[in-house]
Amino acid sequence: MDELNAAMNDPARPWHKRAIDAIKIIPAVGGAYMTGGTAAALAKALTATAAQFFVEVAAKGDREEVLKRSGLTFLMQLKAFHDRHS
C-alpha cells in the first residue's frame, strides 16, 4: 500500500530532468537575442516554455494512465474512504 501511495504522489518527471530541460532553453533564448533582439528572445522563450509545458502534461497523463492500468488505485480510494468514515 505504501509503495502504491508513493507511486501516486511522485511527480510525473523527476526534478533533475526538469532542470536539464530548463537549462536547454537558455542557449536557444541567448541565440535568439543575439540574432533578433529582445522580441526574438521573448518569442523563443515563450515557445520553448510552451513546449516544456506540453511535455509535463503528457508525462502526467502517462503516469495516470499507468496507475489506472495497474488496477490498484481503488485500494487508495478505499483507504481514503475508510479514513474519512472512521
Gist of the model:
The chain is mainly alpha-helical. The protein has one domain (2-84). The protein has helices at residues 2-9, 15-70, 73-84.
Structural account:
This protein is mainly alpha-helical. It has one domain. Helix content is 88%, strand content 0%. The two termini are 18 Å apart.
In this structure, how is the largest beta sheet organized? none
Task: Note the overall shape.
Answer: rod-shaped
Gap between N and C termini? 18 Å
Low-confidence stretches: none
Strand content: under 5%
Number of strands: 0
* Helix run count: 3
Overall pLDDT confidence: 81
Q: What order do the helices and strands follow?
A: HHH
How many separate structural domains?
A: 1
* Helical/strand content category: mainly alpha
